[in-house]
Amino acid sequence: MRLAIIGDLHYPDELLNNKVLIKEARDAFYEQFMNLFLSIPADYHISVGDMVHAGEFSEFNYIMGKIKDSKHSRRFLHVLGNHDTYTYPKQEILSVTRQQRYSVIEETHAIIILLDTARENRDDWSGTLDDEQLAWLEAQMKRTTDKPLFVFGHHPLYNTTARSTEPMMSLDPSLDIWPILKQWQGVGFYFNGHNHVHSIVRQENWHFIQTASILDIPAARILTVLEDEIRLEMVSLASEQLSKWSSLFTLSIFDYEKYPQAEGEAGDQELIINRLQRDRKQVDQQ
């Protein structure tokens, strides 16, 4: 099984500089990036939220149009981010993206969970989970299986990945979902965006994996599930042309600044989990 994952897209319809050259650079950047991303062979292509910048339907329609028009028949998954819900109610957004608010996908070699951590509040960009979703998530954690679990949400858990202790840069600190995740008996992976910097943190049997915005680092994470290991690698999609286009339009995105050192540390790029060693360790512990 193979998953291709990208961080925050932040596609902006409106730009501070409306010159034709700036708009053309924006559209050329996103068209080429999405073509490169969707060309990666994968069972699913996954966006970890903030697909758009201002939450406008025109923005969603642009990105979804690129996916629909792609020559590559891929399954695309998207979780809601805080920028996605800036302007319209979630149900109206989901009618455009054709996604579910939260869901579980059980495949032969893995289980995928998609969460809705976004608020419908422009002034509070922290994350949350409603009671209904929390109860549903806890029920998922009680599954009995040896399959790895991959959870996708826009916001990180508080005090896990880089910047997750900063104000509104995580799920609400008062919402302690760690006891729920700890109920999972196997190996778990939690993927998020939001904080615009690559970061990988291990906590007990979970790995928390944060991916930077593609405007800062044009790249994708590739997750491969093999019989003997789970491999996460970073694939750069950068080019001189993408950098040129990006430099032309990103300064014209309202309230967007590139994050310095978005690449994170050396250990935030790749991850390899030896499944055979882990299975033997679990048997020894029993």
Automatic annotation (TrEMBL):
Pfam families: Metallophos (PF00149). PANTHER family: CYCLIC NUCLEOTIDE PHOSPHODIESTERASE CBUA0032-RELATED, PHOSPHOHYDROLASE. This is Calcineurin-like phosphoesterase domain-containing protein. The keyword Hydrolase applies. InterPro entries: Calcineurin-like_PHP, CNP_phosphodiesterase-III, Metallo-depent_PP-like. Keywords: Hydrolase, Iron, Metal-binding. Belongs to the cyclic nucleotide phosphodiesterase class-III family. Residues 1-197 form the Calcineurin-like phosphoesterase domain.
